Structure of RNA polymerase sigma-70 factor (ECF subfamily):
Amino acid sequence: MNEVREAITRAHHEEWARVVAALTRRFGDLDIAEEAAAEAFAAAVERWPADGVPANPGAWLTTTANRKAIDRIRRETKRDDKHKEARMLYDDSRGPLEGSVDDAIEDAIEDERLRLIFTCCHPALAPETRVALTLRMVGGLTVAEIARAFLVQEAAMGQRITRAKAKIKAARIPYRVPSAEDLPARVSGVLAVLFLVFNEGYLATGPDTDPVRPGLTAEAIRLARLVRALMPEDGEVAGLLALMLLIESRRPARVSASGELVALDEQDRGSWDTALIAEGHRLVRERLATGVAPGRYQILAAINAVHTSARDVRDTDWSQVVALYDQLVRLDASPIVALNRAIAVAELDGAEVALAAVDRLEDRLAGYHAYHATRADLLRRLGRSRESRAAYDRAIELAGNTAQTAYLTRRRDQLG
């Protein structure tokens, strides 16, 4: 029984997006696709324990979901018209909108999920809505996980996703990869999606999930490679891929054997993946060689290149890190960027200077665990143990998973 439950969980992680994408392509409706996929997984929970796990779980789920979708269409009002539409869609092996995609673009795309991403990232939707919808429909994240990623309430995020699906349906947004001339303008939303999916895998926000979810980081990297193959000259696509590779290279050292988060300065750098580091550094160098002003992801990749170039944390070129953050602030003046810059400033100019910068962010980051964790560490360095303990307590209260909680608790308890 445990093996069946594990198989269902694994199938959900691996097959959810494939099933949703296949149904969206066939039926052209995100609600139908999502609900039919959910019904198919519910059927798996009911039938697999008795019938056994099928040899090809993805094919079983897709076939079952297709039948569920057709059954739903038949039950709805205007049954005859809906039934005719369903039969036409079901019998058309090419699927809807096949001929509406540029041939060159169509040849370059081998994955239905990329079509689904571009649909969810359509410019008719607000930027934050594109990201949230794609995380749900493609990444398979729960509404709660997405809400934590956006630092908003779960109910508000659920409403946002529901409205987005309704708008796609009402506006008849096509399920296809954009034409070649539209791709540059559309890709920024896709990159934002992939980065958030990657971040959720690298350090999950949910307390009831594994702290690190390699399946999500691998999926984000795989899709980033597909986008890069489609747009090889786009600097930000290359920058995001480099950033993901350099962060992923440190994953083996990110969580200890006891399940505790390991901070960058405490990681075993010998366990970092040198092949990923080499590939990430190569991409960063290639972008620098173009002489084109870097974008946000390219700068973040360069920052991570500095970190992964240091064999020991004491060898880190913090002046270069701060200079890169100064560039990034001019492109992205978000409080998260300012917080990360302050962490680097602490290594260069001292904890007191950094704390003053962090305290200026309180109004904007009061509900963010990393803000309080950063304050706690800076206060600890300054010998202000009582205030540090209070900041650790607040960070622990807001922490998203067990690895973060374990790390913060140990640091707090070391105060005595």
The longest helix spans residues 2-27. The CA atoms of residues 303 and 321 lie 6 Å apart.
